[in-house]
Amino acid sequence: MIFSLIVCTYNRPAALMNLLKSLKQQSLYPNEVVIIDGSENNDTEEAINKIEINNLQYYRVGENYRGLTRQRNYGVERVHQQTEVICFLDDDIVLEPDYFSSLISTYKTKPEAIAVGGWIIDNTHWEKANDNYKPAFNEFFIDGYVRKLGQRNVLRKRLGLLSNKPPGYMPEFSHGFSTGFLPPSRKSYEVEFFMGGVSSYRKSLFQKIRFSSYFEGYGLYEDMDFCLRASKIGKLYVNTDARVLHFHEESGRPDYYKYGKMVIENGLYVWKIKYPKSGIKSKIKYISIDITLMLIRLFNGLSGDKNGIRDSLGRLNGLWSLLVNKKFRDV
Questions:
Q1: How far apart are CA 32 and CA 35, in angstroms?
Q2: Which residues of the chain have pLDDT under 50?
Q3: Do 88 and 111 form a contact (C-beta atoms < 8 A)?
Q4: Distance between CA atoms of 25 and 18, rounded to whole angstroms?
Q5: Which residues contact 63 (CB under 8 A, 6 or more apart)?
């Protein structure tokens, strides 16, 4: 299967070099590596010139194409004509050696798949359990594995605001479990969204939809928007055997106030993609969760998290937009 990799980057030369070093160790290597660099200096280009990468296509873009969704669309237009699958990686990802081998094999074992996401390794402690296992109130059980719920999810559960759907599916009141709640079983699971930083799509999908111009700059939730629209066309999967590390590079990320505001405004946007007409009960739950999470971030800030205050103020601004801004008022 002919596949291309697109990496969109912005002012992160050191992180990008770590990704490219792990790329060179892959047991299955992309037929094409396309780097779309929106950096405002020459550091990334100079770093790339010092490392030998096979099948590399490098593009430097200016302000007109800068921003995650714009850079991704720019890259899609420039992959090889024979490409069958287009893969995307964030520039602060590091791959396990068999990442692409596992990811691409999913299109053979799941021929109906139009998109496949990878699985991010984190510090979550999972334990195997039998099918009859009854999880405690603060535990999450799925497919023979159990893990602890974080404090915010325990609180949501006590308030009756926790998702009632599997990971990777959006409930009617949004705020579902991320694909990070899929267990380390090395299986593939059907979903309707996954993280765009470890994603892949059949090239034919881009003849029908593109990444939305609604999202600019950092583009929070652009991946969920694209996946939700793609899930109306075909089936999406996450392969938990296609594994990466995500280092959450701080450079290039927005100020926490802007981030908090985007959580609210962009979160509303993707919710309405999935559920354009919601019932009153779902609306109340949706707003209640937003308020709960805002208060949690405020508490984090008062407890010493220097970013928590700005995050919560940004969320408050976003919630105010729901009330007074016509663009967001019709929840």
A1: 10
A2: none
A3: no
A4: 11
A5: none
Q: Which residue has the tokens 């090395």?
A: 186
Q: Contact at 8 Å (CB) between 226 and 211?
A: yes
Instruction: Report which of 84, 89, 88, 40 is spatially closest to residue 62, judged by C-alpha positions.
Output: 40
Could you give the 3-state DSSP secondary structure of residue 202?
A: strand
Which residues are CB-neighbours of 325 under 8 A, at least 6 positions away? Answer: none
- 3-state secondary structure string across 71-131: HHHHHHCCCCCCCCEEEEEECCEEECCCHHHHHHHHHHHCCCEEEEEEEEECCCCCEECCC
Helix axes 256-274, 280-302, angle to 10 degrees: 160
Structure letter (DSSP) for residue 150 = P
Contact 100, 30 (CB under 8 A): yes
28-74: pLDDT as tens digits: 999 999 999 999 999 999 999 999 999 999 999 998 899 899 999 99
Token readout for 276 is 């354009």
Tell me how far apart the alpha carbons of residues 89 and 143 are, in angstroms, rounded to a whole number: 27
Torsion of CA 64, 223, 87, 20, to 10 degrees: 70
pLDDT, position 322? 78
pTM: 0.92
Locus of tokens 């921003």: 67
